[in-house]
Amino acid sequence: MAITGTSTRYVELTELMGWLSINGYNDLLDVDLDGIVENNEQSTYGSQALNYACSLIDFAICGQVKPEMARTTGNIWLKDRCIDLAVWRLMGYGGRDIPVSVQQAYEHTLQMLAQVKDGDKIPGYTYPTPINSEKVQRGARVVNVWGGCR
Fold this sequence. Notes:
The chain is mainly α. The protein is built from 6 helices and 2 strands.
């Protein structure tokens, strides 16, 4: 499998900012709701939300592929799941009400990740051969992972 990048996350802070727009992103980072985004809010809460999202995704896929390999592929499905999870986490900071659409996207993402954890293939992910079935084969070795998650 070719490595197409060196990212340590499925989505970086700049991508999350672009998806939300800079104003939306800064609004969500103003956790104390004082109208000003302090440096510690920007660096802490954005990173925490992405780390949370990446951890959930890693847990779901670690039985199939090494998460550090999956993070470098630029897989759109994984990026979208990361955004859904990170936005949900960001919106909950500061005791805000999470919009229904964001809550639904979060719950749907958790359901899809559970299906991957149960053996469904990661959509759009290029697996090394010979995996070519709807469910990932279970056995002693599953796509570069010996003995399960590490």
